[in-house]
Predict the structure.
Amino acid sequence: MQTLIRNGRVVTAVDDYHADILIEDGKVSMIGKEINVKADKRIDAKGRLVIPGGIDPHTHMELPFGGTSASDDFETGTRAAAHGGTTTIIDFAVQYKGQSLNQALDAWFKKAEGKTSIDYGFHLICTDLPDDRLPEMKDMIRQGVSSFKLFMAYPGVFLVDDATIYKAMQTASDGGGLICMHAENGVVIDAMVRRAVAEGKTAPKYHALTRPTKAEAEGVHRAIALAEMANAPVYIVHLSCSDALDEVVRARDAGLPTYAETCPQYLFLDYSVYEKPGFEGAKWVMTPPIREKWNQDELWRGLKFNDLQVVSTDH
Amino acid sequence: MQTLIRNGRVVTAVDDYHADILIEDGKVSMIGKEINVKADKRIDAKGRLVIPGGIDPHTHMELPFGGTSASDDFETGTRAAAHGGTTTIIDFAVQYKGQSLNQALDAWFKKAEGKTSIDYGFHLICTDLPDDRLPEMKDMIRQGVSSFKLFMAYPGVFLVDDATIYKAMQTASDGGGLICMHAENGVVIDAMVRRAVAEGKTAPKYHALTRPTKAEAEGVHRAIALAEMANAPVYIVHLSCSDALDEVVRARDAGLPTYAETCPQYLFLDYSVYEKPGFEGAKWVMTPPIREKWNQDELWRGLKFNDLQVVSTDH
Amino acid sequence: MQTLIRNGRVVTAVDDYHADILIEDGKVSMIGKEINVKADKRIDAKGRLVIPGGIDPHTHMELPFGGTSASDDFETGTRAAAHGGTTTIIDFAVQYKGQSLNQALDAWFKKAEGKTSIDYGFHLICTDLPDDRLPEMKDMIRQGVSSFKLFMAYPGVFLVDDATIYKAMQTASDGGGLICMHAENGVVIDAMVRRAVAEGKTAPKYHALTRPTKAEAEGVHRAIALAEMANAPVYIVHLSCSDALDEVVRARDAGLPTYAETCPQYLFLDYSVYEKPGFEGAKWVMTPPIREKWNQDELWRGLKFNDLQVVSTDH
Amino acid sequence: MQTLIRNGRVVTAVDDYHADILIEDGKVSMIGKEINVKADKRIDAKGRLVIPGGIDPHTHMELPFGGTSASDDFETGTRAAAHGGTTTIIDFAVQYKGQSLNQALDAWFKKAEGKTSIDYGFHLICTDLPDDRLPEMKDMIRQGVSSFKLFMAYPGVFLVDDATIYKAMQTASDGGGLICMHAENGVVIDAMVRRAVAEGKTAPKYHALTRPTKAEAEGVHRAIALAEMANAPVYIVHLSCSDALDEVVRARDAGLPTYAETCPQYLFLDYSVYEKPGFEGAKWVMTPPIREKWNQDELWRGLKFNDLQVVSTDH
């Protein structure tokens, strides 16, 4: 099966030119000024951009959370992704207490199987990592799942303590893997939330006001410090604000293997969404929350100067 | 009762001059070029320095710890202090699990009573601060005990979690009090210690090698972040190294009410003490441990530039 | 001659207490709870503060500048100072091109002689320091004039080049002296001024708009870098803004012997004075100019945290 | 004319794969898994890397300097470049005092014409930029020479003052051009050199000892400050040391359009070359000089984290 895309403007990470592209059995096999092949399928891309498929390394299809579940399953979610030009997602499989890492991965493969329109892979969220389970991480890496997400937030649900993070970083790094960190001080946030609830402050905006940027920045700093002690790299997920970015910048200026992603919601939206009348603000309840507008400029600077390496959706 | 000190060289925090000093009923009542009074007691201080009595804000008389107890009691310790020119100590009373703050303070007053040769006061080490005990802090402040020490180290013994620290900071600050922080990531240190022990690494030097400077710096950063979120000041006890000092400097440069003390052992000793043959190095087992020599210069710089405010002994 | 000040509240750099003070021949000879002496003069200071006389280390009495002259001479200026509690000034003698340093000092002593109501000393502004004149600096230091002011601003008038500054720093430091630096990039400011004038922008506010904070910060950074290369201390005069303070903070954090003063005008006034209607804004034309209001907080932070050491008036 | 390169391993800035490459009339016209064309010339690249030609943006062919001249002319230099895989150089044309920019460019085009084996372009070194010559910069940019090098070093030869730099930055930036800066405080270096010579310190190592890293860092900081005031980008040439890199990092962390290159000599050699016996060290006399070894790690970190953007040779 051959497909020929003609006359398009090809834009890649480093180039921008007009060319024809031949695809054979799903893979680009030739790029040239003019390709004369009788392909099975011919597409005229005149006046259009031809770009590589996007990779979204942070999605949560069918994730059960907080008594409900992500609205997209692997079928609807990947179809939507394809329509936007995203051809690969890396979703998060969740290991629940008492499960082996393999059980978690199997469960998620089962969810995805046969439903996806695009490529997919998994990170593994670990919530239960006693010392005798750590070796399973290396087994996962050998199976191709090399990134593990740990939470400093959500005490009682996802949160693992600093010792677990430290040991997981060492183990993953030893095996060539990477820890992805949800970096917010969830214990302090929890105390803030309890007080807010006790004071009757339950409007949507209190979701943001009980998760200050300093709680995220503290988590980022701690994640980097633990990684430095473990002699391991670390990847900060969904970084939302200037305070947190400062910690990443400081680490990278010191030569530490620190990486971070931000998301469109932090680049384009601002705190004012929570001030909308009534319960409207609840539409934007996410974690970390949307921040004050001035943070956007700092995040854009971070992307421009390679202090942030990735934009994902946290779908 | 009058005492006259004649001909001494008076050196205070800001002055240096020759003068006579008259003391009436234990208080300086007059300083002058030449005081002509028939005092009950006359001391000729010619050729000597006359300086105010020292205050040591970090002592642990009769502290039970690790299955043994501090070698000095309030009698020997304060007598030794007096010989060195220290006329006031602030010792640490310890609240154990289940005790009220008042019980803790009473216990320590009982230890000290009748034994001391010099003035003394107390900070209160809190190990058990559920929400319904927090109001006791304000009561303590009204009684004159306005500083409370919390531990990020020693899990299972002294360690309290970040939420407790955060709430204690708010409560103390509200009442005009201050949190003193033992700032080391004790949970990670514990993991390092367990591994070292498992590997048979039990020589004295492993005490230092399992408590890296980054674990202290992380604690200092977190303490400052919690204080900032609580809108409270914070005082770091026994800061030992450049990495930790960097965090204090950064906070003070940002205008945060952050204070720190260091101790003579960190200013004058270095890690090589742990390399002494046999078990000799055990004499210097303390927490935080003695650091690499180059840290000393940084601590002296900190004192000179007011980034460190206090030298105490941690006796 | 004896003067007794009774019942005042004595406030010094470190103390605050009620006491009597006896002054003999112009010097405090005794401080005490109750001094019973028949003094020639008795002052009842009940309800009043008794404080040491202020020292203003930055005044310009009778300074000829820009075709006019400072409005105060040593008589009116020092009388005014005395009324405000300032009992010592350090004024600036100016060495003009071709003069020896001694000639400059003599000229200023002549201006001051017999006119002053308070103590005074001199710094020396140097505008002409070829290599063969450098030794005169050490001679000045021996005479008690140990601080020399150099200008990075005012090309053609006061400005000296970086090599002169570097060599003067070495020479002064060798002799135990200190360079005081007017730190603004005067050459770039001059280019900005010329353009503004060419464009008809001559309203008072353009004085401020052609002297941006970055031009001052650059000067401060350069002064510190020259001092570091010369292995000498440096004292920045009339620091006006956060950008410039950042450079001082950075230097002090690195342990460099860097000192700086700010002035009341920068602590209390802000740029809006230049926006007053008509020519009114001209009243506040000074160098560096008054800055945007937010700088004030940073300067206060600097004073509080010992990043700024002195408040002078630049009278 | 067609050339076919077969079976090579193609490595570009972002990709690494095996493919054939077809070149028609000197341009890549097709890249594919297997290209079946009867080309005029066929090259078998099996087992070899196929990479894009290198660009060296900092060369000095036939440059007259210090009474002698660069040993390579455009013929030998570009032939050597081609042998190393460099297919484009950007050399520096020099405008001498009194010349127009066009005269300078013409002179260098004449030197290069007919001699080069590879592509070439020019930056323009400006040594004489009075206000009425500034408009020529925009003319140059329209002709395709959009980068201008200015010197803070070499007083009396290349050095231009800060006002000139500031105005040139504004003018170049206005026209879409860029200032390349040789950033060292040449005036202070000159004073150090004169003293060293006066003291008979003329061994090769004194070349390095009279050009300290702080003199370079000061120049870099000043260049960035001038660019910020001019609202223009700046490109630092041949950055050699950690102190100077710190200034670039600080600027980029603040979002300023600051760029810098380093060179292989700073990445691979260290100061010890100057300590070789006799006059041997003179082989490594270059500006800035080779630095202490530890600087190398910092430069590599800079490249890795995108704080340095370019490696050139300064041939």
